[in-house]
Amino acid sequence: MRSETRLQLRPLSPHLQIYRRPMTMMMSIMHRITGAGLYFGTLLLAWWLIATATGPGAYAVFQNFIVSWLGKLILVGYTWALIHHMLGGVRHFIWDLGWAFDFPKANLMARATLIGSMLLTTLVWIIGLFMRGVM
User: Fold this and answer.
1) What is the pTM of this model?
2) Largest Cα–Cα distance in the chain?
3) Hey, what domains does the chain have and what are their CATH numbers?
4) In angstroms, what CA-CA distances link 67 with 60, 73, 77?
5) What is the pLDDT of residues 91-135, one digit of tens each?
6) Among 87, 97, 94, 48, which residue's Cα sits nearest to residue 71?
7) What are phi and psi of 94, to 5 degrees?
8) Are 135 and 126 in contact (CB under 8 A)?
9) Cα separation of 44 and 67, whole Å?
10) Among candidate residues 77, 73, 89, the one with its CA nearest the CA of residue 121
11) Cα(131)–Cα(129) distance, integer angstroms
12) CB–CB of 114/123 below 8 Å?
């Protein structure tokens, strides 16, 4: 068999159907995505501040958007991204200290980041709605 033919038959990397994505890799990707989401959420915060400073008409436009179902969905997503990104930062800080590098602990911390961010987001929204008198 010629060497050229043999090189063409050899796979260059693991195939997507057999490659298992580790939880730590998925959380690293989510950390980057939430970082980008925080950028766009900060633009929403800037819109709120500018609308507040501009006057009642501009604030009414912002208020109409933020109380819509899309506005509320964006606020919930922004809250989750903020908390998830923060917990991911804490996870990386723990790794910077040299702790929890072994696979079971790193996997547990990745899962705790995901579950914790969902639970804390729910808790923040329940407290916020309770304080507004909605609940």
Assistant:
1) 0.82
2) 79
3) 23-132 (1.20.1300.10)
4) 11, 10, 14
5) 999 999 999 989 899 999 999 999 999 999 999 999 999 999 987
6) 48
7) -60, -40
8) yes
9) 13
10) 77
11) 5
12) no
